[in-house]
Specification:
Strand content of chain B: under 5%
Shape of chain B: globular
Order of helices and strands of chain B: HHHHHHHHHEEHHHHH
Largest sheet of chain A: none
Largest sheet of chain B: 2 strands, antiparallel
Shape of chain A: flat
Oligomer: heterodimer
Number of helices of chain A: 4
Order of helices and strands of chain A: HHHH
Structural class of chain A: mainly alpha
Distance between the termini of chain B: 11 Å
Distance between the termini of chain A: 55 Å
Helix content of chain B: 55-70%
Number of helices of chain B: 14
Structural class of chain B: mainly alpha
Helix content of chain A: 55-70%
Chain lengths: 133, 377
Amino acid sequence: MITTGQYNWVALFLLGGACVLGLAFALAALYRPAARPSMLKRLTYESGARALGDALLRFNIRFYILAIVFLMFDVDVIFIFPWAVSFRLLVFGDNNIVFTPIGPSALTEMFVFLGILIIGWAYAYRKGALEWV
Amino acid sequence: MPQDILLILVRGVILVVVCLTAFAYLTYLERRVLSWFQWRVGPNRVGPWGLFQPIADGVKAILKQELIPRRADKVLYLIAPIISFSAAFTMFSLIPVGERVFLTDLPIAVLVFLGLSSLAAYGVILAGWSSQNRYSFMGALRSIAQVISYELGLGLALMVPVMIVGSLKITDIGNIYRAETWHPAYLFVLLPAGVLFLVSAMAETARIPFDLPECESELVTGFHTEYSSLKYAMFPMGEYMGMSAMCAIAVHFFLGGYLLPAIGGVDLTNWVGLIVGNPDAVWGPQEGYWTVVSLSALGLSTTLTFVAKTLFLILIFMWIRATEPRFRYDQLMQFGWKVLLPAGLVLVFLAALFVVLMPDLGGGAQSTMEVSMYVPR
């Protein structure tokens, strides 16, 4: 089977793209005029005014809340994907594979799971976690 | 075996060269299209019709002085554009471009694609964080919030065809659009899923109605404010690649992939196969000149169809860029969480009902015949 070789190709693209780009950066550094930027040029750009303090500001708490809500739904999506791929198999089975289909309960069980998550979503909605004012 | 490796290598090199040239020219196309929309001329000075403009831009990007801010975290600052570029670039190794013309056709292509599309966000976040600039940092924060919000819509939209077909392989999903397996009932679930996918893809790649991470009227240019020369050029490059990859995936999942249109019951894909040779003979074990000719004719015509369809979607993205104003940030987040997410969940429900109610549809991906047919020899 050529399947394992295919994964190598994806890895090769990921690494190859990174290496080619690193090489391009290095070559560009050799090729361009070698003038070193002055100290003023290397200051942080803040619309011309002098940058005061650090860039790592305190930021809004909403980003944390959003991350938590996202985590819930992302795990949810990860759980749904295996079910979604094998859904047809779960309901009807397949003549070529020895497998006992479990019928429509594949649907209802997932509906219960999703229903609980939607209650969670509604709770976050009511609590105002999805509001950005 | 050496011939196999050579063949795959040639395919890979062709894909890389075509991709890189195509992206350079995509920037040119976008500038021309936008200027048509805005009643101006656009780049037309460098070469005939301004066709050498991307080359001039590239040379200029290389020759520009490189500024790394004094307080920047140098390692992460260098890595960020590399991640952004190579994640978007790798998506192209996943996408089949024509009938039997592909580099890889992974059984888990959809998952790898979703993974890569969220990996591209790391480039943005690292760029914004490592530049130690307030504008960049705000852009990165906005970007991470936006990408994670719309990733859910993206995943749920892709889940609909995955459920109908029961496979994560891109060619399996494309098979439901063949004339033999197509049924109009698919439109009830695939059409809304396609719209959901396109909207989420637009937000995921930060295209203009959703380009909050780099909105120039508030954040200078957002996360890549401190980048210059070639490193700067890699961010638009990654963005264009991401956009084209999203469009290509949308074509495979919702627009019939590389198949030629079937008009009035006449499937043009089969026609091409019939004109140049019997498709059964093409996929059978025979080797020889005729097989190569018919394969290449079929491959070429389907590849051109695929490119045309992808370009069509990209032009729609450009059209939207030219006409739509930018969202406000709170509107963006509320739209993602209060509209797209419930819509995606409802679509998954609908797709489940569709599979139960229409047991005969689905392209038959799980029969071993189809699987063996698409394993390259």
